[in-house]
Each structure stands twice: as C-alpha cells, then as structure tokens.
Amino acid sequence: MMPNSNCQPISGHRLRCGGILVILLFNLVAAAVYAAPGAEVVRLGTQDRAPYGYFQADGSFNGLAVQIVSCTMKGMEQHYSLSVYPWERAQVMAKNDQLDGFFPASDRPDRVDWTQGSLPIADQQWVWYLRADSKLDPSSAEFKQQAKVGAHFGSARLKMLEREQYHIVLSSQTDKRLLRAFMAGRADAIIGSDLALRHAAQELKINLDEIKIVPVRSTPQRVFFSKVFLARHPGFLSRFNAQIPACRKAYASADR
C-alpha cells in the first residue's frame, strides 16, 4: 500500500500515511514509525510550516511540498515515513543518520558536504518585510550595519544573515511568532519566504497594506537527502527526481 496525498489522523497525534503509522509528539517533537515487517521505509523529517506542510482543520497533515513528496514516493512505489520536528532538529537528525532526509529546504553552503538536494518541489522567493512607512533600504550598506532584523530559526535565511553579519535581534521558531514580534516593533525588518509569511499574515489578520515587501531572490524548495543514505541506495535520487516533473504538473494549480 502506498502513501496517500496526505496523512490522516487516527487518534491523538497518530497519523496514518498509506500503510505506515507515524506517531508525533509535539513541543520537542519525537517520532516513532511502524511499518510492515521487512518493508524498507525512507525516513523523512519536515516542519509544521504553512503552506508547504501543515496540519489541516481536520487534523491531517498536507501542503504544497508534502503533496509533491507523497506523489513522488507513490510513483516510485516507495514506502516512507514523515515526522514533524522543530526545523533545526530535523536537520541535525538527518546529519546524524536518524533521518534519511528533510524538506522543504533551499540550497545552503553548509549542507553541501553532507546532503544532496532533489529537483525543486515547490517555488519560494525570499522577501524582506518592513513597515509601510519605513525609509530603510535593504540593499544599502547602512541597512546591514544599523537595521535590527530577524528570520526563522534554523533557516537558510538566518544562516545568511549570520554569515553576512547583519544585526540580528529575532530568530523565532515559527513564521507567526516572527511576524508577530516584527509587528510589535521588536525588529526593523524580517526576511522570510513569500508564501509562508503571507500565510502567517492571513492567520494573524495582518493587513499587508501596513507592510512594505521587498523581493530578494528566488530560492526553490527541495528535498535534501543525506549522502550516507544515498550511498546506501545508489540511483535513488535519480529515480526520485524522475517523478517530480509529472507530480508538479499534477499539482500546478496549488504551486504558484
């Protein structure tokens, strides 16, 4: 039995993804996976981050990136488990061979040595959010030196801010917390994913007319598999990538 396009709740924090049962424990989230004896299961980690992957009103877990991964695995006839963790922890677990991969994520210099990314599974553009009346210019040298900025904890955006020595004052665990802190005046600007910040703004009922949005660059979202996993499974990434174009076309109405 192959995974469906989303994971359905059974009870509590238990989800069934096709023939695989995933138990999710929240806060510092841990996961235990059960599958048929002898069935090989690819262990993937993700985060609760709309619209790429998040809990729906009925308790199921789905989103732009989740549906592409599910479609791809189904096309490969590959069993997999999907566990939800705080984002930084998911990446550490993959690095320690406790997970085989994680998504959705963008290219980052410190991932090159130990991961290999798939073809893009979802679009993303980095954007700066500033107040509508802000005179700050994110492209200026003064901005980097003086502006108080923030980004999602564990993200490639935060790593970029650290690497380029911005004045970081926020590193929130979720986009909603990041945006709420920004709106409360705790930072001059935040950088994030266009779709994720827009979704967070909708949930917080923030009028985007109050915000100046400055595009930064396109940063496609991928699945990153550990090189340890790929070494054990030659050809896996090629087969995975071969399924992505058809899956993205099938879900083109949901993915910008």
From TrEMBL:
Gene3D superfamilies: Periplasmic binding protein-like II
Domain of life assignment: Bacteria
Protein name per Swiss-Prot or TrEMBL: Transporter substrate-binding domain-containing protein
Gene source species: Duganella flavida
